[in-house]
Description:
Layout: H1 15-58, E1 72-79, H2 90-102, E2 106-115, H3 120-136, E3 142-151, H4 153-158, E4 163-166, E5 171-173, H5 185-191, H6 215-240, E6 255-257, H7 258-263, E7 269-270, H8 273-281, E8 286-288, H9 295-311
Parallel strand pairs: 1-2, 1-8, 2-3, 3-4, 3-5, 4-7
Antiparallel strand pairs: 5-6
Amino acid sequence: xxxxxxxxxxxxxxxxxxxxxxxxxxxxxxxxxxxxxxxxxxxxxxxxxxxxxxxxxxxxxxxxxxxxxxxxxxxxxxxxxxxxxxxxxxxxxxxxxxxxxxxxxxxxxxxxxxxxxxxxxxxxxxxxxxxxxxxxxxxxxxxxxxxxxxxxxxxxxxxxxxxxxxxxxxxxxxxxxxxxxxxxxxxxxxxxxxxxxxxxxxxxxxxxxxxxxxxxxxxxxxxxxxxxxxxxxxxxxxxxxxxxxxxxxxxxxxxxxxxxxxxxxxxxxxxxxxxxxxxxxxxxxxxxxxxxxxxxxxxxxxxxxxxxxxxxxxxxxxxxxxxx
Length: 324
C-alpha cells in the first residue's frame, strides 16, 4: 500500500516518527529553558558579588563599629610622610583620635608612629589636637609607640603624648628643619642656555633653581627655617619637660636608636603596642580607629589633585620647608 503524501508531495511521517520528533523538539526547548535559567542565576550572582564589593569599597557597608563591647585600648596609626594630601594628614589623624577618645569603652589611646617626618604645619596641627584631647579627656591616657622610625615631624607629633615607647632599634629624633632643592646655573652656562625670568616683585623668583643664589634671599630662608626650628624645639621642651636631658646635639638634627633615645630622655621606655595595652593601659584588646580611605574618597582626591596639577603653570616652582 502506498504511503500517504503531504500536500508538497513528500511522504507523510509515521505516527511514531512524529512523536519522536515532538519529543526531540520538546527536549531541545527544555534544555534551552534550563540553560537560560542557569545563565540568569549566574549573572545574578555575579552582579550581586560586584555590588557587595562596590559597597564595601565605597564604605557603605563593612565599616568598623565605633563602640566595641568590653573595655579596649584604642589605636591610631601614623604611617609614612606627614602631609596634607596623604593618609597621615592632620585631618585624617585628628578624625581617628577624636573617635578613639570619644568611644565609651576606650581605656587608653595609643598613637603608633612609623614616619620620617613631613610638613611642619601638619605635624604641629596633630600635636595640638593630641594636647587638646588630652585636656578634654584627662582620664584617658595617651601614649605613642614608635615602630621603625619616628623622626623630625613624626617626633614633633610624639612629644604631645603622656609617654613615648620605642623598640631598641627604632630611629628617633632628627629635631631640625630643612629646605632643599637644586641649582642648575653651571649646567646652563655650559649648555649655552639663558634663563629669562620676569617677575613683579623683587623676590618673586625666591630661590629659583635656574637663577644664581641671591645672598639676601638665602639669609631670609635661613631665618624662616630658624623660626620653624625654634617652634619645634619649644614643642619638644614643652612635651618632654624635665625628662629631656639636653646636650649640644639634642636639637642639631641628629637621630638616635630607641635605646639611646630613652637614655637621652627623648623617649620613656622600651615597649610595643601590645605591651602598652596589656601592661600599662590594662586593656589588652586593641581596637584600630585609624580612618580608612574608601574608594570614592580616593578617586575624588586623586581626581582633584590631577585637576589642580593641570591648572598649574608648567614652569611653576615650589619650595617648602620640611621636618625631615
